[in-house]
Known about the structure:
Structural class: alpha+beta
Oligomer: single chain
Distance between the termini: 12 Å
Largest sheet: 4 strands, antiparallel
Number of helices: 3
Number of domains: 1
Amino acid sequence: MPEMRFVVTWPDGRDEECYSPSLVIKDFFAEGQSYPLADFLKRSREALTIASDRVQAKYGVPCSLARGQLARIETAATQFDGQEAATVVMKTFIA
């Protein structure tokens, strides 16, 4: 199963390298595109859940790395709660 890493830029300007066990991330995000925080979270949840489900279909267990990455994204996003203009940039994909 092809895995990938991707880099996001949080509203405070901090870059974070993230992991997905599947290329499905590319179906939900575009390089260089900025996403409102709520939309970024929704897309991340959906993409990483699909990625984890693909691992489960192939290996019989969900992907703990995908679930962990989603938890880190959700935790990081809490810093920006209440900031209506907060956006996250999908900086780049690393294949």
